[in-house]
Amino acid sequence: MSTKDFLEKDYYKVLGVPKDATEAEIKKAYRKLAREYHPDANKGDAKAEERFKEISEANDVLADPKRRKEYDDARALFGNGGFRPGPGGAGGGSFNFDLGDLFGGAQGGGGGAGTGGFGGGLGDVFGGLFNRGGTRTQPRRGQDIESEVSLNFTEAVDGATVPLRMSSSAACKACSGTGDKNGTPRVCPTCVGTGQVSHGSGGGFSITDPCPDCKGRGLIPENPCDVCHGSGRAKSSRTMQVRIPAGVSDGQRIRLRGKGAPGERGGPSGDLYVVVHVGTHPVFGRKDDNLTVTVPVTFPEAVLGGEIKVPTLGGPPVTLKLPPGTPNGRTMRARGKGAVRKDGTRGDLLVTVEVTVPKDLGDKAREALQTYREATADHDPRAELFQAAKGA
Ligand SMILES: [Zn+2]
Ligand SMILES: [Zn+2]
């Protein structure tokens, strides 16, 4: 997630909730939209996918009270995506609002590295908007990284540790991040080393952008580094073992705090978001914390009752008592044989009985059934149906 998104994007609008929406309202709106735009439901639809990303991003900020407050504060300070000249800017005077200094002061005053002042969140906003090149010395929070992982049905129920390979951008080792072969870059003539350029945008105030010639670094390599071609950045990839908690469901987005890109100058690491894809199982299904299974029973078992053996996921079978007169489709509960919950307890296994009809009958069975038919000939199972059909 780019950090200047905070000022450019209206997360409330994305989720279609008012600014004073409660956590429950945000959660509800997110769930509804996430279902509607989920990639699995909109295969190949790039627009839906884009929308799904926006929705997830908005939810990540608004569903987290701390981040929501940072977001609200940032927007309250600078208006909705634009910069408003304060009262001092009136009367035609030049309005020059140095956000970098403003923030630097606030953070410095707070004392602790990365934790004082406004904290990492706002630091990110300013860091992203105003790259102060060589003059920037504030700790900076690492970027958030998004990744995906596929689990089979059982792994999702029980939880699993999976390897996750990620690539991120770090300072080039060969040139120590200077971009220069000899480590002696020269000062950028365009921005004179500040890494930023200002230009008026009407209204009597100016906007500051990263310098286009040095990409905000303030320095230009004299002899570009062979490894990074002068960018000073290098792709590094690492594989880490990620613990996926038990009970995750398909499409769920897990946030692993501090597992994103490392921070700069002692800043905290970003977060890692993992989108989980869960495969299906030939026998079992999932319903929140419960597992589901359909078990065939014979007609005599349904009518007379009896004990039936039911398979469980990864455990020994359980025996269920079928009461006499169990109708087709009745669901019974095997307690504690479902998916693992957050608190470590398990949901239930919901067992739905399905009365089967035999295709082939032996002579003896056929005879018995004929006798049964004669014995129940005076019962018409459709009598009530026709009565009701006439009634209204
Ligand atoms: Zn420059
Ligand atoms: Zn290099």
CATH topology term of the domain at 3-96: Helix Hairpins
Q: Which sheet architecture does the biggest sheet show?
A: 4 strands, mixed
Beta content = 15-25%
Query: Which bin fits the share of residues in helices?
Result: 25-40%
Structural class: alpha+beta
Placed side by side, the strands forming the largest sheet appear as 10-11-15-14
Query: Which residues form runs of ≥5 with pLDDT under 50?
Result: 80-136
In N-to-C order, the SSE pattern is: HHHHHHHEHEEEEEEEEEEHEEEEHH
CATH superfamily membership of the domain at 3-96, which one?
DnaJ domain
What's the CATH first level of the domain at 3-96? Mainly Alpha
CATH architecture of the domain at 3-96: Orthogonal Bundle
What is the rounded Rg?
32 Å
Mean pLDDT: 79
Q: Quick one: overall form?
A: elongated
Q: Number of DSSP helices? A: 11
Keywords: Chaperone, Cytoplasm, DNA replication, Metal-binding, Repeat, Stress response, Zinc, Zinc-finger
Family: Belongs to the DnaJ family.
Binding site for Zn(2+) 1: 172, 175, 225, 228
Zinc finger (CR-type): 159-237
